Automatic annotation (TrEMBL), chains A, B:
CDD domains cross-referenced by the UniProt entry: KAS_III
PANTHER family: 3-OXOACYL-[ACYL-CARRIER-PROTEIN] SYNTHASE 3 (PTHR34069), BETA-KETOACYL-[ACYL-CARRIER-PROTEIN] SYNTHASE III (PTHR34069:SF2)
Record's keyword terms, sorted: Acyltransferase, Transferase
Stretches assigned to the Beta-ketoacyl-[acyl-carrier-protein] synthase III C-terminal domain: 222-309
Annotated organism of origin: Streptococcus pantholopis
Gene Ontology MF annotations: 3-oxoacyl-[acyl-carrier-protein] synthase activity
Lineage: Bacteria, Bacillati, Bacillota, Bacilli, Lactobacillales
GO annotation terms (biological process): fatty acid biosynthetic process; secondary metabolite biosynthetic process
InterPro entries noted in UniProt: ACP_syn_III_C (IPR013747), ACP_syn_III_N (IPR013751), Thiolase-like (IPR016039)
Domain Beta-ketoacyl-[acyl-carrier-protein] synthase III N-terminal: from-to ranges: 90-164
Entry protein name: 3-oxoacyl-ACP synthase
Length: 310, 310
């Protein structure tokens, strides 16, 4: 077990909501931006942990889409939160599962004693890139941010029991924003090309690939850890779409075993998993000692599973 | 010592060069792109290592600027190189020092046995975003890619002796591409705003901050490892600018101790460090058993140092 433990958590949401039927989505106003959300979530996490930024020795931004092409998003968060310090800042990205990948990866230097308290921030403002013509994604995404602080202690009962990541690039183009970086430069933006700069999600393709690949990986992962789905105290899935509960059912996870925030909050891309994690903690649906599985599929197609003893 | 060892390396360059006085720069033609360079470098590294992609169990893209906003760059490299496999793919980004950060970070799960052979690919086509009005950066950058494969073996004499990363966000705006992602969406691109989508480097500010911060960190890092600059067999610095040799001199590193490719190849952003590493290996300026320091400053301002016993 990688003996890391949760020290604090926080979230941030835009002021404005929009509604599609009974679905609520959070969308930034012109006076809000990704950096504000990221910094607010991070400050809330520090407050919740009763820490100041000086207690942190690594700042990780784990978001799908960054704030600027250069520098990395973590450096811009650092500027708001930690200017004057020399805390290292870096970005880790696997799109929607960036938070899980970041926690997974950074737990190794954490338990090795390289870092002692790490702050992971996921922030997204996907609403800027939604295509009104693609109802499925246009009505699904929310903006938001979540931050969590993890520490390390040898005598901790908490920790990462196991984790796994797989990428199946058959799905590399199932979720995309194709234009905006080096493949298609912003200088080509026009009324004709503008949809290339927008979110494009082939929901059926993702669901079909996920349903084909996930059950096997899920059962392999549980078996490897001597568990069945019933042994999981709680599951925090990426809030991918309204089909998520069906995927959970297919995996043998009961409704009371997982958190479903799709109607209330939609899909916040990378911020979904930590946001749902924070909500589960706030609502005391999980508590100390629980075995909690973070899992999700991301553009790539990438899947992460991380089993945490809280 | 984190017992990782180099298994293979490869580079890729665009066909076309441009010249500024005696300075040679590599720039992609319309029929070349970042993905091609990344994949070519990765294939060359696999060949050099006498491996196939099935031997790799983690693909890391360590680039400053990605190919698409979604998915992450590693997933797109995966599609070209490893489609049909389930090798995990992820991006790690600290701009110019992304390669060092990636090697540093991923070495922990590598030595923990989570991964066995990891491929790190850095690729950049900065030429797409250069501002002809800013001579300093316009004449400095090259496009290119470099890939390296590292393995893990307990009985290895090779490994990472120590590493350090610091971010000083006083320099967060000293090197930027401000527009293109969430801070300034491509829809705002126009003749008036176009420079916001271009590279903007305040060379003097970077140099002044580096010269203020680097020597102290460098000596702290060496002292911590019971070394002086003279004990380093070789230094592979980020090929930041034509001022790089002056910084080396200030740190007490002799001309024969470091590799300087600025005139021949320019600054390839994240690809510079691994490209220079590959050149030093090819030219046999470093060999088995050598103590080699990888170091660089990146937008952020971030500094990385990683001491490797080859």
């Amino acid at each position: 077990m990688r003996k890391v433990f949760l020290q604090g958590y926080g979230t941030a949401l835009p002021k404005q909501t929009v509604h599609f039927g009974k679905q609520t989505r959070y969308r930034i106003s012109p006076d809000e931006n990704q950096l504000d959300l990221a910094v607010q979530a991070a400050r809330n996490a520090l407050t919740n942990a009763k820490m100041t930024v000086e207690d942190i020795d690594c700042i990780v931004s784990a978001s799908a889409v960054g704030i600027q092409p250069i520098p990395c998003t973590a450096a811009l968060i650092h500027e708001q939160l930690a200017k004057g310090t020399d805390i290292p800042a870096l970005d880790i990205n696997t799109t929607c599962t960036s938070f899980i990948t970041a926690l997974d990866l950074i737990s190794y230097p954490l338990v090795a004693g390289r870092y002692h308290n790490i702050l992971i921030v996921s922030s997204e403002v996907g609403s800027l890139a939604l295509n009104p013509k693609q109802k499925e994604s246009f009505e699904l995404f929310s903006d938001g941010a979540a931050a969590m602080i993890f520490g390390q202690r040898q005598d901790s009962q908490s920790g990462i029991i196991d984790s796994i990541q797989k990428t199946w690039s058959e799905g590399a183009h199932a979720t995309e924003i194709r234009a905006g970086l080096s493949a298609v430069h912003p200088k080509t933006y026009s009324e004709v090309t503008k949809e290339e700069f927008m979110f494009d999600m082939k929901g059926k393709q993702i669901l079909s690939l996920s349903v084909k690949k996930l059950p096997q990986l899920f059962h392999h992962f549980l078996t490897k850890n001597g568990m069945t789905a019933a042994d999981l105290d709680f599951v925090i899935p990426h809030q991918a779409s309204r089909a998520m509960p069906l995927v959970m059912e297919k995996l043998g996870i009961k409704p009371q075993q997982f958190i479903d925030l799709i109607s209330e909050y939609g899909n916040m891309v990378s911020a979904s998993v930590p946001f749902a994690f924070c909500q589960a903690l706030r609502k005391k649906r999980i508590q100390k000692g629980d075995k909690v599985l973070l899992m999700g599929t991301a553009a790539g197609l990438t899947t992460n599973m991380l089993l945490l003893q809280l």
